[in-house]
Amino acid sequence: MPSLPPVIAEIRLAVRTALADLPEGSTVIVGLSGGADSLALAAAVAFEAPRCGLRAATLTVDHGLQDDSAAVAEAAAGAARDLGLDALVVRVAVDGAGGPEAAARDARYRVLRDAALDVSAAAVLLGHTLDDQAETVLLGLARGSGAASLQGMAPVREDDDGLRWIRPLLAVRRETTQAFVAASGLTAWNDPHNADARYARVRVRERVLPVLETELGPGIAEALARTAEQLREDAEAFDEMIHETIEDIVEHAEAGISVSVAALAANPAALRNRIIRLVVDSEFGVALTRAQTLEVARLVTDWRGQGPIDLPGCAAARRGGRIVITASGR
After folding, report:
1. Residues marked as binding?
2. What is the domain range of residue 259?
């Protein structure tokens, strides 16, 4: 028998490994755009899921941002059905803050989550590659977004509903997914937005990374992905320390929460700032900027009798030996 092309073997193995921990008999949903990455993922899932005792389907979100978006979405669904997968297309209205790219992403994830919960799926599979990870890290670095952004995308994340979001191809290069599609006789859709230099991610992909490869040598994308992985490991260790610490230093207060000044002062700055961010996020659903976090920290480290600090949806004030954070207007 003819040998299996290495690119097909690589992606099937990545998918098989990602599916291995899912309960037998459960359902997985593949987010399918029709591009090479998600199409390669769908094809590998179509092959591997039955062998893992899993049911699989695809969901294509039609954002309606291009004149032929409906036809593209139906073509992607048709390709999935040809692979033996159930396929669904959902049309969404893209609006909201952050520009069309961010709004489309939010709408897409919302639809995927709702569809997965409707069928009690165990996981949603996404086709992000190592190249996507490298681009994400570079964009986070350029924006000064801190370590959380530089961690990039997690290979596996479980949300509050117990739904897993899995990226099986996060260690696979984009050129491998393209070669997989060609070797499988599939036809991928080329999103014109992926060549539109108005988008920062496209400029990183088409201009910045190639320059880095030329000037610094090959392997830049892999190095950026390794950096993200190492930062995630550090963050996991920090998070464990923070949750252990919070149990001892945080108390509920009227209309809010309070934190011990002495305990915050005893911790190094990195841990202190993470505690502040986590407390505010968990209690009020607010992600503080670094500047806001440092202002709250000054109530501990540079206390000169300053008044309350206004934050999005809440306010922080020092009262005796505690930092009290309450909902706005209280």
Report:
1. 33-38
2. 254-327
